[in-house]
Amino acid sequence: MAITARQFLAPGEALAGENEAVLGSNRTSVNAFFNAPGSAYCGFTLWYCDKKSGAGIFNGCANPAYVPTFKDFCRKHMTIVPNDQAQEGDLCAYLDQHVFAIKERVSGTTVITFEGNSTVYKTIAEAKASSAGSGKYEGIGYKKRVLNSSYTLYRPNFAGTASAAATDSAQGHVNKTGASCSVTLALCKIGSSGPMVKTFQRICYAYGIKGADGKIIAVDGEFGTNSAFAAKQIQKMLGLTQDGQVGKDTWTAMLTRLW
Fold it and tell me: What does the buried/exposed string (b/e) look like for 35-59 if buried means 16 or more CB atoms within 10 Å of the residue's CB?
């Protein structure tokens, strides 16, 4: 991809400060561009950036404006990155309800976003000075958010975009050499136990994945019903068959697309 993340966002950012003519009307320049008056426009806002900038990151996607379709396309064609590695140009989905772009990371998992169809501010400075989740008007602009396990970050391959840090293990030691290595990834299923189960559970813990009991997965090395439930959640996130077993395909997807 020839353009940078900043160039991708620029056409949309030129609209920052635009609010709905009538609150709740969903009538903005973005809606007019796609001839979709009255439609939810969070996805349309990112699609507008793509069309106007010529980035083409959504080429082949039937309808990026529909959040489930947006998420499925991003899972297949972009890299999923940890929330604390957010950077300009990353795309983010909140459950199946809302999508936006990262403008910059403030610290940890606190970010400034660029988005539409939300309560936002006209400038980045206003968003930075605000409380997370607040906004001045309903429309197109900037917002401060604190990302959690309900958010998923996708990284397009923009020019000059850094890759998410590769790790040697679930403890997060960075592999600075880029050297390849070979490991045996054991199948984890109901009844399994040991270090590989702990590795899987640490990945779940890092991403805030919950078990069937609604709690964050415990790193106890025992693969029970909660771990199987968590495996299905990760498989759904990655677009894999949801069988609740961590085999070759799940390990490969987790270690190459999550980490």
Answer: ebeebbbbbbbbbbbbbbbebebbe
Q: What is the pLDDT of residues 13-53, one digit of tens each?
A: 999 999 987 777 899 999 999 999 999 999 999 999 999 99
pLDDT band, residue 168 (cuts 50/70/90): very low
Single-letter code of the amino acid located at 141 = G
| Confidence tier at 216 by pLDDT (50, 70, 90) | confident
Q: Which domains occur in the chain, in start order?
A: 5-155 (3.90.1720), 165-259 (1.10.101.10)
User: Among 50, 40, 49, which residue's Cα sits nearest to residue 138?
Assistant: 40
Please give the full DSSP string across 67-101, using - where no structure is assigned: HHHHHHHHHHHSEEE-GGG--TT-EEEETTTEEEE
Q: Where are the beta strands (DSSP E) in 108-222?
A: 110-120, 137-146, 151-155
Q: What is the pLDDT of residue 64?
A: 95
Kindly state the helix (H) or strand (E) to which residue 105 belongs, with its residue range. strand 98-107
